[in-house]
């Protein structure tokens, strides 16, 4: 028997098991609620975000970050693939609603300004120009020539956004904070339709 503070009476095993069960259910419910509404996990498949992320990395994704602060160019986000919403992708935000994005000569320009992109291993070998509408994002993988992203399927509707990648937690030897590269010097394109 184990003594407790409930009037000095001993706590019997059935009561102790019931208490453990309640604690376990409460813990499971808390984890489920956090996973459903606050944070989720994502497994990187492929090398489209190399070198920032590697195939097999597990990433924690903040589902609520953008409720309090706006999306920024340079953020690494997880979203549902628009042509197969049962799949999730991870890419870097390049363009925001209203932006004019141009990829040419291995450089990316947003509203006429060349992005500073120290995270890409090889410049893009393709050309594209697009003007984003309201609620549209332009997303690219860091491994530009080995990524299925906005340059292949177009602008991303923001309704597919899941959240902001925060930290790589697995494998432990690769644990690190996901680096975001804000681009604050890009002018906002004012003439949305």
Describe this structure in words.
Helix content is 17%, strand content 32%. The protein is of the alpha+beta class and 193 residues long. The protein has two domains: 2-36, no CATH class; 40-177, Umud Fragment, subunit A (Ribbon). The strands form three sheets. Strands 3, 4, 5, 6, 11, 12, 13 and 14 form an eight-stranded antiparallel sheet that branches. β5 (76-80) and β6 (88-95) form a beta hairpin. The longest helix is centred in the first third of the chain and has 25 residues, at 13-37. The chain is elongated. The mean pLDDT is 84.
The number of distinct β-strands equals 14
Percent helix, as a range, is 10-25%
Beta-strand share of residues:
25-35%
Characterize the largest beta sheet: strand count, sense, and whether it forms a barrel.
8 strands, antiparallel
Q: Which shape, going by the Cα principal axes?
A: elongated
- Give the overall average pLDDT: 84
How many domains in all?
2
How large is the count of helical segments? Answer: 3
Superfamily (CATH H level) name of the largest domain:
Umud Fragment, subunit A
Q: Give the terminus-to-terminus CA distance.
A: 74 Å
CATH architecture of the largest domain, by name, is: Ribbon
Secondary-structure element pattern, one letter each? EEHEEHEEEEEEEHEEE
Class based on secondary structure composition and strand pairing: alpha+beta
Low-confidence stretches: none
- Using the CA coordinates, give the radius of gyration: 22 Å
Q: What is the third-level CATH name, the topology of the largest domain?
A: Umud Fragment, subunit A
């Amino acid at each position: 028997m184990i003594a407790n503070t409930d009037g000095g009476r001993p706590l019997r095993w059935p009561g102790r098991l019931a208490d453990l069960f309640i604690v376990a259910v409460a813990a499971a419910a808390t984890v489920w609620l956090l996973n459903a509404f606050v944070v989720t996990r994502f497994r990187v498949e492929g090398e489209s975000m190399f070198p920032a992320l590697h195939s097999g990395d597990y990433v924690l994704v903040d589902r609520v970050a953008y409720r309090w602060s706006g999306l920024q160019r340079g953020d690494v986000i997880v979203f549902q693939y628009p042509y197969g919403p049962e799949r999730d992708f991870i890419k870097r935000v390049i363009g925001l609603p209203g932006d004019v994005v141009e990829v040419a000569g291995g450089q990316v320009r947003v509203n006429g300004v060349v992005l500073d992109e120290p995270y890409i291993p090889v410049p893009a070998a393709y050309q594209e120009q697009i003007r984003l509408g309201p609620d549209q994002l332009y997303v690219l993988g860091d491994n530009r020539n080995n990524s299925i992203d906005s340059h292949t399927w177009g602008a991303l509707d923001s309704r597919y956004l899941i959240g902001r990648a925060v930290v790589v937690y697995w494998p432990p030897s690769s644990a690190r904070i996901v680096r975001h590269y804000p681009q604050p010097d890009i002018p906002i394109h004012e003439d949305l339709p």
